[in-house]
From TrEMBL:
UniProt record, GO biological process: carbohydrate metabolic process
Keywords, alphabetical: Glycosidase, Hydrolase
Domain Glycoside hydrolase family 2 catalytic: 263-419
Protein name: DUF4982 domain-containing protein
Domain DUF4982: 618-674
Amino acid sequence: MRPKTSLFAQLGRPAEAAEEITLPHDALFAEERSAANPGKTAYFPSAAYEYSKTFDVPESYRTKRVAIEFQGAHRDAMVYLNDAFAGQCPFGYSAFTVPLDDHLRYGEQNTITVEVRAHDDSRWYTGAGLYRESTLIVTELIRIGLDGPRVATPDIDAERAIVEIAVPVDHRGLAAETVTVRTELRDPAGTVIAGTSAPITVRAGTTGIARQRLLVPDPKLWNVDTPHLYSASVRLEQDGAVLDERRTSVGIRRLQLDPVHGLRINGVPTKLRGACIHHDNGLLGAAAFARAEERKIELLKAAGFNAIRSSHNPASSALLDACDRVGMLVMDEAFDIWTESKSNFDYSLSFPEWWERDIEAFVTKNRNHPSVIFYSIGNEIPESGHPLGSEWGRRLAEKIRELDDTRFITNGVNGFVSTLKTLLPMMQQRSAPGGDGGVNDAMGAGDMLNRVNTSTIVTERTAESYALLDAAGMNYGDARYEMDSELFPNRVIIGTETFPPHIDVNWALVRKHANVLGDFTWTGWDYLGEVGIGRNQFLDEPSAFEAPFPWLTAWCGDLDLTGHRRPASYYREIVFGLRTEPYIAVIDPSAVGRATRPGQWAWSESIASWDWAVEAGTDMRAEVYSDAEEVELVINGRSLGTLPAGRDHRFQAVFDLLYEPGTIEAFAVRGGQRAERFALRSSAGDADLSVTVDRDTIRADDGDLAYLDIELRDGAGTLVTDADRTVSVTVEGAALAAVGSGRPDNIERFDQGKHSTYRGRVQAIIRPTGIGPVAVTVSAEGLADRLVHLSVE
């Protein structure tokens, strides 16, 4: 059996006192940010850390096998047991296992140490430490291989399905052994519906594969809307004793891909309403708590997405588990770098030697997850425009196919990046007088990216890289959709990364072309680092790609750092055809009338509020999003008229008006008649604290959390968005993991027990420390305290 053990209890640095911690853990997130550090990493510093754990190893372990599994350690992890080197993994996103048997001192205490570091090795905030789950694995000498069992569903029809299970049996004893592999398959209700057993003889020092095929009558198929999960239990038995047991979820589904029908899941054509996401969890940094990953997927699905792209590195197992349960399609991405660097000390230094082991870990993690339908081998890889660079892509793709041929392969190719070394001298020669003579000058020339992507140079240079894929991933390459449907009639296309304000244009292209599978916006959820790339830059302020300190987030997500939906999210929902109710987004009055530089990832300076601390008569601007042919805006019962909206007018109408406290309403006008309605109200009277908890009962598990959304609301329940104040949170019976807001230019820390609201909102995250009742007190000066009771079971 495999006891799950939290491995590390101490964190420190040389010459520093150790700190007690619980995994998962992001050590870097506790450091002080400074303007002296890079904005791409959210102004966090470089750092190195050492984790250690001392544990007892009984004499009985002499006849066992002991290993440690890390699901992620960022970065350049070095593992030592009793001061002797035991293993390493340079890539911060690969799962890896280190055998410990040769280093153990039986009947004594043993100390395991892991060194990790983060140093100018990424284009975003990575975190540092043992930020994903770590497990101590103790087994018999003969066991189920650590990469098994492997599940496939190769044969499905309406009447039955075949579940194929391959079980690696790994033997490190001294003589050949015969064992029995016994498998039970349970349906989503928990009923055993199939089972089989078979003997297998394995020679000492080898691994044998036991293959079993189970018949499932009347199968319940897995899909986004019906994420039915079966479960398989595989036991290794000998002389009536269970030597090892593994359980895995099984999703029965069929994938098809062609340029006529696009992507079909269980025979049904499916368009991908996709969100690119980074790996961090907002107020928790990079720590991959299972509940944080699950909540992320739940909220993205509620916002209208049916697919995520794990840009630009492999997703955590916890996130994939959540996608299986909730019903979310996954494009899991392997690398952001191959052999050409993008940062000074990035993974290109290790890629040529380690890529094959990383791909093996990548596929092993993914292949039992029905949610994973695409493997992406890279993101904006410069080598993809070079013949020998394409050869690297072929190596990656064929290695994946060797390990798993049941899913499709893509690559997020940016035609501009792929041909940059050719185009850059040309752009410098043609740059306008007074420009910077380089990429920034050219990028500011409006339609430059489309002109580059549709050029003959890009067509020719990317042909080989696209040809080795099952689907051509195009980053900001929507200008190619139409032409490639004619130039390459067999090419299937995915918009692997797109600009948020272009979703109406992009989605029309997705709907028009069967061979264009979908759109993945940059991004679905706001993230740490690449600070301010989604902000609006005003002409009366200095221009820069990244925002100055203390900016913290990219600010280009449909959902903010806490999971609150921003106006772009509701606009996208309307474009997708999932919402008929209009939506009002009011421009911050401080931005009305100010000229801006168009930002490729920027949305308007708007929120859904009619609660502003300005004088009556102040100039205001309201955007109304709607799929109706017209919308009408009404203020305090007085109509301000109608304006065209809908598909022909990019799904929005813009009203200029004067501020007048009260109520504004938007009506969708269909066939000349008022239809669906949306309203905003000004706050009235004193604000009060409102606390909403996502769950009032949580598990006594290191990966579980409770989220408290704390808001300032008046007596009628209206959110007070323009009178922020500091909120304090204290917890009894559990730990306060974080308190913070979605503010993108945040100077406050998240580990101080108090934080200012942003637009009337702040969030607290509670982490269990044991079984029992939990009391959370929320307070703010001048307001009545709120007491929330939770329980941990």
